[in-house]
Amino acid sequence: MINSAATWADGSLLAFDLETTGTDTAVDRVVTATVVSIRPGREPITRTWLADPGVEIPAESTEIHGISTEHARQHGRPAVDVVAEVAAALAEEWSPDTPLCVFNAVFDLSMLHAELRRHHGRDLELGGPVVDPLCIDRHVDRYRKGKRTLGALCEHHRVRHDGAHTSTGDALAAARVAWRLARDYPAEVGQVPLDVLHTRQIEWHRTRTLGFADYLERQGRRAADPAEAAELARRAAGVRMEADHWPLRTEPLPETAVGA
């Protein structure tokens, strides 16, 4: 049952999503991007970009989002322009009172951050609070079994997910799940001041990530195969390093990164 009390989700929202060449922010690139402006009583304003990433789009990525290397080269705009325009579009409306809704924020924001460094030698600035439906859902319903993909969250929370695996469809779906979480969990989410909710998500991400690292370490200690134990220890160390990096990861800017 949806709580009828007012929440921050009844105000202005900004939604964001990327489709990319892969999942490694150090080497992969943006292919499509969408920024959706949602204001009470108005139709959402959607801005979408198609980039030529300047690298091959792997077949497995094309299978997910439907954009091939050939299509991106023929119809996409230079990545250097797209990245700058996306960052500018976020900066126009993202503010302390207008949160950015983005599913698995640490990936999408880190990818945009890496692309800004690559093409423009500057960092992504956080204009306001982030609302990450994945982070929140994992906290408020932590023991629920099953997948936590965007599609799975949409199904569980009974919200529309048109155009799955397109940046536009996924951005709108992220905003809808965020709205539903705010309404269904008013005390923990919807009626919490946005700056406080942002800070809480940092801690929720940290707690969950460290817990997963602990689990991997326990599995490693139990492993009979030394190679398996070493691999689990390596994974645990990598996961532990991620604990303090929400909603984005930052790495030093290599001297040769700009224009690479």
UniProtKB/TrEMBL annotation:
> Which keywords has UniProt assigned to this entry?
Exonuclease, Hydrolase, Nuclease
Asked if Hydrolase is a keyword of the record, the answer is yes
- The residue ranges of the Exonuclease domain are 12-187
Molecular functions per Gene Ontology = exonuclease activity
Oxidoreductase as UniProt keyword: no
Q: Which residues form a coiled coil?
A: none
A matching Pfam family: RNase_T
Q: Which SUPFAM superfamilies match?
A: Ribonuclease H-like (SSF53098)
Q: Which NCBIfam families match?
A: PRK07942.1
What is this protein's name? Exonuclease domain-containing protein
Biological source species: Saccharopolyspora rosea
Q: What is the lineage of its organism?
A: Bacteria, Bacillati, Actinomycetota, Actinomycetes, Pseudonocardiales
